[in-house]
Amino acid sequence: MHQLKIKELLQNLFSSSKISEEKRHIVFWYDEEKTYEEHINELAPDNVKIHILTEKNNFITKKLLEYDDKESNYLIYSPLKKPENKDNWLLDILLYSREFSPDEISIIAGDIGITDNSLKVLIKKYYGFFKNKERYEKLKKTVSTWSEDTIELGIMSVICKEKVPLFEDLLRKIFIEGLDEENKIIQEMKKYSIDDRLWYYSEKYYGYNGEPDIKNFFKSIALTALSDQIRGELPVIWKQNSLKNKSNSLIFSTHWMNDKTQFEEFNKLSGKLSEELKIKDHIKDRDTDIDKYIECDVFSVFDEFIITYIIEKLNSRSLEYERFKDIINKRKTKHWYDEFKHIYTALEEAINLFLLMKKYNNGFERPCDLMNAYVKEYYKVDQAYRRFYTAYDQREENILKRLQELVENIYKNEYLKKICLAWSELIEKELYHNWNIRDINHQKDFYRDNIKQVIKKDERSKIFVIISDGLRYEVAEELTVKLNKEEKIKGDAAIEFMSGVIPSSTKLGMAALLPCEKIEITEKGEVKIDGEDMSGSPQREKILKKAFESSKVVTYSDLKEWSTAKLREELGSIRVVYIYHNTIDALGDKSITENQVFNAALDAINDITDCVKKLVNYISATNILITADHGFLYTRDPVMECNKVDIKTAGTVDEKKRYLLVKGDVAEQGTLAIDMNYISDCKYKVIVPKGGHIFKTPGAGLNYVHGGASLQEIVIPLIKFKAKKEYKKEKVQVKLTNTTRKITNNKYTLNFFQTEKITEERLPVTLRLSLWDMEENKQISDEKILIANSTCENASDREFKVILTLKDMKYDKNKDYYLKLEDEANKDTIPFRINLAFTNLFG
After folding, report:
1. pLDDT tens, 47-103?
2. Alpha-carbon distance 533 to 334, whole Å?
3. Is 634 helix (H, G, I), strand (E, B) or coil?
């Protein structure tokens, strides 16, 4: 080699980073051929001392380096053959120093710390990669120990810009780059002559021995993973792509699908492959094959297949509701569930509605009996109907259209019509002349029953009242559940109910919630309290202050913008606060937005939750009431002419879609005329249509209505929230019940038990499960999801099974491996021993 080049290499070696904690460099150069003996003084860098090592000065050399001069840089030149380690007196110094050889391969090996001569051949083999110092410096950072595998996988990792030399990770990167011949990573590997090793490791880890084609390899991994999930045999046409190593193929696929940063790339490739393979053509017989595909998770087409199956069964009025729910629950733990979440939710709520309809009956003697039955059970039908449409509106797909028609028909004709007519009959029987339902608290007594008792208790007690316009009972029940699940709100929420005013209008409902001696309705249809107007916030605050001076009215829209300081300034010293919220009615009462009312209900739930959180956490509110002025009726399909009542009445004071306020006696077929003497000495009657019909009156909106006497309109929710200083909502515990902690098969079944049912104090938990080699910080199995959300009393109904698949690799039977159980906040580990009878190791 040219002397200038050698001098440059030596200079680089002495100026490079240290390989030990020494403050200096010591470099050994064994020159058996004595090629550079005469020129050694010319080759050494300026700041380096030269020491000639002979057969007779080993001791002197050792003394020089470790005693006489421990500061200087030394080039130890020996015109001899390098001795064997057992004969080398200076081996200890050599191990913490460096060795130089005037060939570039040896220099590179020394620079990155490869001392095994048998590995230097790899540097020569991949010289195109190593001749760039920046590249091999990256390799040095990537690889922790040197071997043939780590060098080759390290090179591929540097090309793929991966920091850890794991074949699974770099293979994923290659697939993402593209499945065609233009794949830039493959081209880069060919450039450095390492592309053939990609296929060597593909066979070693996955058993792939097909053509060196990246597209075919991805197809083989996907189909092999599918073969592990399917119950039964793959179609013959796909079997030729099935790899020997099922476990690693399945784990590769599930790891990629579960990766939050790269799953979308998997979805795209999986979708293209599904179309190319024409998977839909191979899974046509739903009735026969549905059970085969419940666990299939690689291709989205199986979710489409399962969804179509359930819809077809529901449309044919199949009664296998619990089976369908079980299928949906299993899909919730699968990769594609989020993609089809709204459809699955719509199916689940349709099933809930159909199940609830099986419990419905009309046998009630008194109004209070039916009203109590409504708040105990029947409101859930309205809730399921709302949740169905909330999901349906997120993805209004043709596949749900027929089911939507069935849901609409059952809700309107088998539920709403019957319950409204049953209620109308009870009104005729008992409430015509006295709108006062026995044994039920009345909305007009709200202030007396709920506010007075708090402010009379002592001089410090405070109470906050959130009044949400149109918050019907079933929405409030969902809100109650959310408040009790909210971990950042310390306290308990319990829901009660009141019977509302009739007509169930905003102005009369809002008046009923204020303190008053007398509610009156003027000839213009205006509502006054003790002679005072109450139509706006200033007027309502005036009425509140008249009853109790330390009172205030605020709007939610103002309150949500207030800082903590502003909140404390405005409300800190006030003892009675009314907060008015309007999301549901604001959209529902406009024809252009009435079909958004169910989304508005969800917004209302979130708004009020945030409001409670702010009151509790910022100003230490302890007593909060949440209620409404009225509920509402809503159906999605256009209102038919047969559902509109045409009535012409003289002396009408006020008229809306669901009520007329009139003077005198009126008796029209299909209507109810109810005395309003329950509010002081009112001389008017309210005329409401029977059932869910509406009047033919001017004004916007036909699908969203209120003002009538249906249970959905006049059952008024009353949520009582009590904050607690020391209160923690805990998630249910899940116990592993396997009696042994030894795994002897690469598919291992884990048995779990949810120790208690879900309650207001015990919340559901979602766990991610996987097995790990903690020493290597390496996941050795696929990841599964366990959703512990059972509300069952029976302990056997709270048992779960999860099957984990282990990677095909060598396991130390005397070493602990760990099962990880993780949720959003906690992590637990359980040690296992692995002793597989047989392991498929390729290569």
Report:
1. 899 999 999 999 999 999 999 999 999 999 999 999 999 889 999 999 888 888 877
2. 58
3. strand
